[in-house]
């Protein structure tokens, strides 16, 4: 079977599956990277795509006498296999896809849809598993509905579900990315603030297979982003504790208000960090200080025993090669950016976590490209 692999931007701009010859079987693959959000001071602002992937292999077969119409079938391997729902009306990815379809006048999944999800991104560890699932769902809806949506519109749909832009933007476009949510007028603010339960309703099991076509539509142009430079010499070491922490819980411990001193502390560091990570060679003293944070990490240490000890005791002077160290996303994973010395950094972090009774796994990751959609022709 021949394949055409296309980066997302080109897929959206050039590929139109309606141009493909008619076929009984349509098949495509969606590949979405993991992400690490915040990178210290950039809470809800910056994200970095990483080389662990969620991959969906999708086929749609025209029903005929040999294969009569049936509901969607989902299988899942890898991370989350023991907990992810395989019912298309309960699974996060397919619920997002159905939301995108319903917003475009398509009330149900196509008949004879089969999706295999292979997932390398651990759940609830601060590596963007839910952001990847949401982006996979938006891309799935876009492909199934043959909608050919531009990147900006794909992002609007993702932001109706995952309401901070850092993970989803980096997962969609790839690289080291900064983003903001546009200030919306009152009507658009209301449209973008509808409860998540209206965007992704609980589908009752006995309500048939067609759903109303009046879901809340995303306002146009909610999210805006820019990709920063990144020094090729920097890799991401993910030190992953063996316990899950939901992002919702880790957001629940954050205060509603901050002091000017703490906000200025973060703004100063974020401004320096976005350029410092592109310099060659990268400057460890500059980056280590620029990856400190006072907006989320101090509050999350109650949920992640050992966090301050790891970030304070593992430094560029104790660990040559280290550039900076922070919580990855909402945690509990620790992200160390480094040019070398990965094993010493990881093993010393492991020893610190062990004093708290926590075991870890670690991986050296590359900075990944954005999501891709690959048509099997
Ligand atoms: N590939 C996936 N398919 C379906 N649901 C997923 C997938 N990945 C993540 N999820 C859902 O998202 C939850 C984790 O989200 P969250 O708490 O935001 O942590 P993370 O930091 O991993 O994004 C999982 O428990 C699961 O419910
Ligand atoms: N900015 C968010 C990022 C959450 O990332 P995740 O990978 O933990 O879902 C936050 O810090 O809450």
TrEMBL record:
Gene Ontology MF annotations: ATP binding; homoserine kinase activity
Cited InterPro entries: GHMP_kinase_C_sf, GHMP_kinase_N_dom, GHMP_knse_ATP-bd_CS, Homoserine_kinase, Ribosomal_Su5_D2-typ_SF, Ribsml_uS5_D2-typ_fold_subgr
The GHMP kinase N-terminal domain, residue ranges: 91-175
Pathway membership: Amino-acid biosynthesis; L-threonine biosynthesis; L-threonine from L-aspartate: step 4/5
SUPFAM superfamilies in alphabetical order: GHMP Kinase, C-terminal domain (SSF55060), Ribosomal protein S5 domain 2-like (SSF54211)
Domain of life: Eukaryota
Record Gene3D superfamilies: 3.30.230.10, GHMP kinase, C-terminal domain
Signal sequence bounds: none
Gene Ontology biological process terms in this record: threonine biosynthetic process
Annotated keywords: Amino-acid biosynthesis, ATP-binding, Kinase, Nucleotide-binding, Threonine biosynthesis, Transferase
Record-stated family: Belongs to the GHMP kinase family. Homoserine kinase subfamily.
HAMAP family on file: Homoser_kinase (MF_00384)
Protein name (record): Homoserine kinase
């Amino acid at each position: 079977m021949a394949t055409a692999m296309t980066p997302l931007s080109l897929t959206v701009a050039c590929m139109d599956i309606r141009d493909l010859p008619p076929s009984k079987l349509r098949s495509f693959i969606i590949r979405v990277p993991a992400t690490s959000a915040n990178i210290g001071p950039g809470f809800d602002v910056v994200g970095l795509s990483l080389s662990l992937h969620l991959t969906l292999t999708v086929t749609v077969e025209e029903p005929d006498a040999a294969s009569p119409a049936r509901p969607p079938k989902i299988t899942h391997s890898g991370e989350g296999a023991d907990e992810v729902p395989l019912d298309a009306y309960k699974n996060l990815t397919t619920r997002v896809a159905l939301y995108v379809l319903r917003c475009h006048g398509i009330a149900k999944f196509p008949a004879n849809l089969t999706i295999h999800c292979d997932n390398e991104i651990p759940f609830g560890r601060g590596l963007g598993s839910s952001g990847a699932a949401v982006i996979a769902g938006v891309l799935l809806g876009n492909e199934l509905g043959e909608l050919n949506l531009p990147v900006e519109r794909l992002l609007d749909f993702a932001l109706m579900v995952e309401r901070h832009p850092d993970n989803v933007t980096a997962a969609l476009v790839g690289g080291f990315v900064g983003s903001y949510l546009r200030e919306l007028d009152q009507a658009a603010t209301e449209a973008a603030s509808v409860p998540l339960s209206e965007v992704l309703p609980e589908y009752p099991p006995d309500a048939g297979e067609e759903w109303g076509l009046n879901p809340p539509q995303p306002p146009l142009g909610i999210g805006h982003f820019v990709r920063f430079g990144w020094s090729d010499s920097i890799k991401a070491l993910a030190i992953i504790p063996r316990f899950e922490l939901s992002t919702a819980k880790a957001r629940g411990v954050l205060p509603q208000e901050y002091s000017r001193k703490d906000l200025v502390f973060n703004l100063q560091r974020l401004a320096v960090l976005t350029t410092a990570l592109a310099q060659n060679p990268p400057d460890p003293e500059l980056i280590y200080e620029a990856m400190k944070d006072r907006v989320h990490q101090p509050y999350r240490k109650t949920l992640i025993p050992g966090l301050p000890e790891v970030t304070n005791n593992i430094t560029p002077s104790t660990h040559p090669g280290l550039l900076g160290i922070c919580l990855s996303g909402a945690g509990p994973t620790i992200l160390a950016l480094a040019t070398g010395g990965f094993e010493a950094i990881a093993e010393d972090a492991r020893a610190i976590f062990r004093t708290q009774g926590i075991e870890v796994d670690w991986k050296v990751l590359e900075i990944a490209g954005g999501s891709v959609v690959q048509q099997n022709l």
